[in-house]
């Protein structure tokens, strides 16, 4: 989870970089990676919660 959280923070930081923000293709690529990482993190959080309920 920490790795995904770190990746998400890096993607957000990259997106606010003016040089990157002006490159439409890079922005789209980073946004796709960000969305994928966020979905993966959300799934892990759900799995974690389910496991906690089993305990």
Question: How would you portray this structure in words?
Answer:
The chain has one domain. The protein has three helices and no strands. α1 runs antiparallel to α3. The model has no long low-confidence stretch (mean pLDDT 94). With 55 residues, it is mainly alpha-helical. The two termini are 20 Å apart.
Form type: elongated
What portion of the residues fall into strands of 2 or more residues? under 5%
Uncertain regions spanning at least 5 consecutive residues: none
Rg is 14 Å
Count of distinct structural domains: 1
* Helix/sheet category: mainly alpha
Count the beta strands: 0
First and last CA, distance: 20 Å
> In percent, how helical is the residue content?
over 70%
Would you list the SSEs in sequence order as H and E?
HHH
Number of helices: 3
Mean pLDDT: 94
> Mind summarizing the main beta sheet?
none
Outline of the structure:
The protein is mainly α.
Please name the defining characteristics of this protein.
55 residues; mainly alpha; elongated
Show the helix and strand layout:
Elements: H1 2-15, H2 18-21, H3 24-54
Helix pairs in contact: 1-3
